[in-house]
Amino acid sequence: MRPRYYWYGVVWKMITLYKKLQTEDTDQAKLMVEAIDEALAETRAMPDGDLREKAINDILIDRVKTYDGVALDVHYSSITVQRWVNSFVNLVGKKAGY
């Protein structure tokens, strides 16, 4: 599937580097960390926010599970988990100013 926005891959990669970006002192790193933090806070407030946050942490930040693995843990379909992750990436991109 082709991403809707040209910046999707860049934001995806920045989210996977979230822990490393927290230690960097560049303007771009600070901008992305702030955008990710804001998006995580907004995601927690959504319906099933704790499950969404678990999916995001396991798939993007910690990179320990796949969509199917998280779907088995949270008892939702893998398509739903993909939608959660994709909406999170889009939210981070918009908060970062893309």
Q: Would you write up a description of this structure?
A:
- The chain is mostly helical.
- The protein has helices at residues 8-16, 18-21, 27-44, 49-61, 67-74, 78-96.
- It is globular and about 40 Å long.
In short:
The chain is an all-alpha fold and 98 residues long.
Ends distance: 20 Å
- On the 0 to 100 scale, the average pLDDT is 94
Question: Structural class, from secondary structure content?
Answer: mainly alpha
What's the order of the H and E elements?
HHHHHH
Q: Using only CA atoms, what is the Rg?
A: 13 Å
What's the total helix number? 6
Number of strands: 0
Shape: globular
Largest sheet: none
Helix content: over 70%
In terms of DSSP E residues, the strand content is under 5%
Secondary-structure map:
Elements: H1 8-16, H2 18-21, H3 27-44, H4 49-61, H5 67-74, H6 78-96
Which descriptors apply to this entry?
98 residues; mainly alpha; 72% helix
